[in-house]
């Protein structure tokens, strides 16, 4: 594997911003003159159920009929005349601005838009002024809006997404042509797809992002947007339950705790003193009870009751007032009452004068991960709390966790953008040859492994094929049970791709290949990929992918091919984590697979002997190899460890009876050294 292919330079996604600007200023498209979105008020005649539609050109059974009627009844889209809706006509930029303006309730507009092609007093002048002022639809530059220009589907979705406040997109999408969505529209399209906004608009899961959007489709989008989307409250912390625990002697902290629990949809627990505090107890500088407790750092006022299921919570928001510049001693009692190791504590306090203070309480919860606290004045409102909570990094869905949803840990598989299901743990066969290779693959299949990775360059496709055929003959598997990946190599193989692809199929001799990858970028890579696309059409290959492709390579490559790659296989292990590249690839709806998961032959002792990995392994009663493989799975990375040892092979399948906690994941993430174990 020492082919001299220079590793191409990676670029950060700055390029995406440039593309976005380019796209926004280059929206000129076909004209759609003569149509206008009428100002007529047709909302006075709502339809009874079963009654024929209002517009003569909207057939009752049309997929968008209900949406058109919904929009008409609400005065969002009134048609191009009293009787015609023109559902098949493309929607102009002026129309789009107008319908969104209506969705927003047609707010008053104080100033003209300033665009030379937007005449005052037209049906679209106020909507465009509003849209431009609010950054919903921008002009082309040079003072032109492009009133009659059409809008592509991805532009329309992006504009709607901006109206919605630019919410987070889903991590993955089942749209088959997701890779051809412009980079600047990716989040919007994923958001729209995840929220059912594209229902009816995808044909066989193709979205066709560059096609001009039609009026019927816009009605459908708005209908689903207005009915499906919910408020943008943060999700509870991924993978863990959240508890809001608080102490409030004078009801100042209580409402803030209640807001927090409500915003996070978390459980709430009030720390109630066994002996309630009276007003006299709380009077400052009287040597009363509170004064005395705060003067004695060892005082531990007793708490009435307890949190029965503290072990279930991963994150604890802890609210308290500040007394004499410190948390009340009852907070110390609370912290000493439970084991907070590995849990995350987010303190917040109420005080009109003091700054935030933890005054040493952190040491009372050894092993906990403390987030920097925040002080709030008494009477702080819900939206201030929401703003703070929304800004907390720990609540932002981390890409790996979000992507984990795409991995089904029950079926141990992931559905690829090609529609096929692929196991998420498998076995690699690099450097396995002859009988060793046949026996290793058969041992893997007997142990339940259903994903095998080989390559033309490994020189063992024949042995892999033989092992699979023997396993089928022996009744261990059926052909359709196993997912086989092979690859063609740069140089002569990619120069004559049809011949090389057929040679792989012949050597494997298992009917079809589940997935074929280009092993590395090459001057003939597009040509080779296009040849693989023809084999997909012929049913000889099911899914396609790439190996050793990074951000820049993908940006250049994807626009040149028709079938989106379903997978990218790159070097990934705790010392080389690819944290800049993995989320980018996943954001394209492409599954990531890691090679050298254990560091690669000759390097495994470094990783398997790592103290952090070993200590986590010990805590779960598993091996270091299993911890590394599980870490990959929880990051949304498919694993294909190589092995010729049947015990190792079996061990490498046992990854589903334990789960790494957030803090263990964080400790493993911290091992990254950007240390590549091979040159490509
Ligand atoms: P690897 O999986 O990181 O490490 C393999 C080594 O780990 C072997 O020495 C194996 O020894 C050992 N091992 C496996 N399981 C173990 C366990 N449970 N405990 C202790 N040791 C264990 O390296 P790799 O096999 O080279 O890489 C994985 C696969 O990725 C390859 O087989 C190949 O399919 C693919 N790959 C792709 C590329 C690419 O450019 N696309 C490049 C390299 C590799 P034993 O045999 O003794 O178990």
Describe the structure.
The chain has 680 residues and is of the alpha/beta class. The chain contains 25 helices and 19 strands. The chain is flat and about 90 Å long. 45% of the residues are buried. Mean pLDDT is 84; it is low at 1-35, 39-52, 230-239 and 396-405. NADP nicotinamide-adenine-dinucleotide phosphate (NAP) is lined by residues 428-430, 453, 519, 547-548, 569, 595-601, 604, 608, 623, 625, 640-645, 648, 651-652.
Terminus-to-terminus distance: 9 Å
Largest sheet data: 8 strands, parallel
What ranges have pLDDT less than 50 throughout 5 or more consecutive residues?
1-35, 39-52, 230-239, 396-405
- What would the average pLDDT be, to the nearest integer? 84
Q: Which ions and ligands are bound to the chains?
A: NADP nicotinamide-adenine-dinucleotide phosphate
Instruction: Compute the number of helices.
Output: 25
Percent of residues in beta strands: 5-15%
Quaternary status = single chain
| Helix share bin | 25-40%
Gross morphology is flat
